[in-house]
Specification:
The protein is of the alpha+beta class.
Length: about 525
């Protein structure tokens, strides 16, 4: 009896073991069937959901995959021609005029160098640059990017990448390094070409057409940010026609593709792998990428580089006018409905514009049939126009379109010299005229001002009311008023007669000259 429970227990254990052993295949089979059934249901359900409820997702993934392949293709096509540009400048002694020693606290010997910010007031007291043992200006080195545009070894980059360099070397993605044989630069557009020593059969970039770009187009930037070779970043064209002070003769493409220090001179590429811009600058408060970068359109870069290669310099077209923007108030006063065009503020003598009959206060609206949106737009089309041949020019004058024919000349190496912004002497004439309505007092131009305004007639502004119309327009003492509207005013009497027919409510256009040059100002009371 005592063994029975044990036997029974053992039997149970073994039975249990046998049950597990003999029935496990069946259970495993049923489990497998359950898993397969569940998976099948889930799979079928997913397929149903995929096919029936989110077809857009399928299309989106396919489109994203296709876009990824496009980025890959563009990068593979362009990167072999993208190079690292290294520049070196040797230490230099400060340059002074013969017989003159640099000053410690006067002229800053570090001006234009990275040390300028550290010595804004020049050298500390007791430290001068003179003699054979004078301290040298520190050397500098830099790293930028470039793109090969000719298999014989011609690299396109930025002027600021190679400017002032004593030696330049270029490293290809395959590790080959070449020295620069020749460097040609164009500071006006911030472009440069570098010809390499004993280079041939190099991989070259395919240049696209930047005029076909539209806002929103995908682009990739390739270069050497922070000395990280062959880095690719993606973005879109954020804007076109941006103007920057760093390059007076270029309208930039804006992109949100990441551009950082070291990207300068590298290409901005479309999805076809074509270069459509040369990365040049960033807008940043930190010095690094903050979502806004700028590139020189490749059509401009191509035009500049071709001239640098062929002639070593760039020949630009020249009209002989000073132009300014057309703000809405001025456009309304001059009767310009669409508020587009370039306002002529000065016509220089013996220039194509003078010969063609262009007048001050004309608004240039088209050149060779191409619309002119503003000063930079006109400059861009004129400088690339054929020199020595007639071109069609349309101006708005007194509310009417006037067609003109103008023969463009090459931009002279020296433009008419503008006077420096020295303090203006007080007029010597006692005769004055005061306009309470416009808040200014004028006097006749005195002989003491001849050097400053040589060749120009008018009346000088003596003083302005602090809260008057004239002050709000930015006119201050010492400004020469040349014309009221289109009426010349060579004396106080002529000015008083001309201004009495005008009203501050309607506004009056003044043609003025300052030490910076001629300009046009609208005096109008605020409403």
């Amino acid at each position: 009896m005592n063994n029975a429970p044990v036997a029974n227990n053992r039997t149970f254990v073994r039975s249990a073991g046998r049950i597990r052993s003999s029935y496990f295949p069946a259970l495993y089979l049923w489990s497998s069937v359950l898993v397969i059934f569940t998976a099948s249901c889930f799979s079928n359900g997913s397929r149903r959901l995929w096919a029936e409820e989110s077809p857009a997702t399928v299309d989106s993934i396919a489109a994203a995959t296709s876009l990824s392949k496009a980025f890959r293709h563009a990068a593979e096509r362009a990167t072999p021609s993208v190079v690292v540009v290294r520049s070196e400048a040797k230490p230099r002694k400060p340059i002074t005029r013969r017989g003159e020693q640099p000053k410690g606290n006067g002229d800053n010997p570090f001006k234009g160098t990275p040390f300028e910010d550290f010595f804004r007031d020049g050298l500390p007291d007791g430290l001068n640059f003179h003699g054979n043992n004078a301290p040298q200006m520190p050397g500098r080195s830099g790293v930028g990017s470039g793109v090969i545009v000719d298999a014989s070894g011609i690299v396109l980059t930025n002027n600021h990448v190679v400017e002032g360099a004593d030696s330049v070397s270029v490293e290809l993605p395959d590790g080959r390094i070449f020295k620069a044989l020749e460097i040609k630069t164009d500071p006006e557009s911030d472009l440069a070409v570098v010809r390499l020593v004993e280079a041939h059969d190099l991989p070259t970039a395919t240049l696209g057409d930047s005029d076909k770009l539209e806002i929103g187009d995908w682009v990739i930037a390739i270069g050497t940010p922070f000395e990280l070779d062959t880095t690719v970043s993606a973005g879109i064209i954020s804007a076109k026609g941006r103007e920057l002070d760093s390059a007076r003769r270029a309208k930039f493409l804006q992109t949100d593709a990441a551009i950082n220090p070291g990207n300068s001179g590298g290409p901005l590429v479309n999805l076809a792998g074509e270069v459509i811009g040369i990365n040049t600058a960033i807008a940043s408060s930190s010095g690094g990428y903050q979502g806004i970068g700028f590139a020189i359109p490749i059509n401009l870069a191509r035009w500049v580089s071709e001239q640098l290669i062929a002639k070593g310099s760039v020949e630009r077209g020249f009209l002989g006018v000073a132009i300014g923007p057309l703000n809405p108030e001025m456009a309304t006063k001059l009767g310009i409905k669409d508020k587009k065009g370039a306002l002529v503020t000065e016509v220089m003598p013996d220039t194509p514009a003078a010969a063609a009959g262009v007048q001050e206060l004309d608004v240039i609206t088209t050149f060779d049939g191409k619309p002119v949106d503003g000063p930079r737009s006109l400059q861009e089309v004129v400088e690339r126009s054929t020199i020595g041949k007639p071109h069609a020019l349309a101006v708005l004058r007194d509310g009417k379109t006037v067609p003109l024919t103008i023969s463009v000349k090459a931009l002279p190496s020296k433009l008419p010299r503008q006077t420096t912004e020295d303090s203006l002497p007080a007029p010597l004439s006692a005769k004055t005229f005061y306009s309470e309505e416009f808040g200014l007092e004028v006097s006749e131009k005195a002989s003491a001002t001849e050097a400053i305004y040589e060749g120009f007639s008018g009346v000088l502004v003596d003083r302005v009311d602090a809260d008057g119309v004239c002050a709000r327009a930015g006119i201050g003492p010492g400004v020469l008023i040349r014309k009221v509207g289109k009426t010349p005013v060579n004396s106080v009497d002529e000015f008083s007669k001309a201004i009495e027919h005008e009203s501050a409510e309607q506004g009056v256009v003044l043609q003025v000259r300052t030490p910076r040059g001629n300009s046009v100002v609208l005096l109008k009371s605020s409403t």
